[in-house]
Amino acid sequence: MVTVYIAARDIGNYKDNTERLKEILIESDIILVESFREATTLFKALDIKKDRECLIEFSEHTKKAKDIDEIITKIINCKTVSLISDCGTPVLEDPGRLLIEYCYSHNIRVRPVAGVSSVTAAIMCLPFNFKEFYYTGLLTRDDREREKKLSYLKRLNVPVIILDTPYRLGKVLNAVKKVYSKDRQVALCLDITTDNEEIIIDEISNICAKYQDNKKREFVLVIS
Predict the structure, then answer these.
(1) Helices then strands, each counted (H, E), the chain
(2) For labelling, which of 28, 61, 90, 218 has a CA lying 20 to 30 Å from the CA of 182?
């Protein structure tokens, strides 16, 4: 019976990749990747040799039922298949969930290869109370809708975890400052696990003034 492994990889530091991840990738007949470039860079770092024919792009653009049906047909004829994203744990903010839905509908076994997640990495090193928290992930691109969502989150009275693309950091910080009080304490985790890692806990107004122009750094924002 074929098994599809949802495999977590590093979020910036290749040394965080597990031996099990390497084993599964080597064993996989097919590897579904978010982008060929990031996947081949990972394989080079882990000294894994895979033919391009073994790789299938599964990204935000893979939405047509026809394309997914073709992928499922290929998967059914395999023994081991894995899915990796460009960084971290698949499914949270990439199209892996759609693949999993199709796998279950076709009685294909799905298993995790646990590893690094930017969400848990941020939680691990912050002094906030995370007995309960709200993961909101990527906010909408629309400014008005983003503020509307933040207004809802403000009422929850639990830490809120936000992810977004690096080039929207400034917009996210400004929106949080506008909706929350300027002295609301937040944590900005930048480039976690890399040599450029920074974890800053401060009032949103101070962080907004200092970091809103950082457009090329991966980030996790936690509102206390």
Answers:
(1) 8, 10
(2) 218
8 Å CB contact between 84 and 7:
yes
Q: Which two tokens stand for residue 212?
A: 């809103």
Q: Cα-Cα-Cα-Cα dihedral of 81, 82, 83, 86, to 10°?
A: -140
- 146 exposed, middle or buried (CB, 10 Å; 0-12, 13-18, 19+)? buried
- Phi first, then psi: what are they for 69, rounded to 5°? -60, -40
Phi, psi (rounded to 5 degrees) for 64: -70, 135
Q: pLDDT per residue over 106-146, tens digit each?
A: 999 999 999 999 999 999 999 999 999 999 989 999 999 99
Residue position matching structure tokens 């796998």: 103
The Cα–Cα gap between 20 and 86 comes to 18
Q: pTM higher than 0.70 for the full model?
A: yes
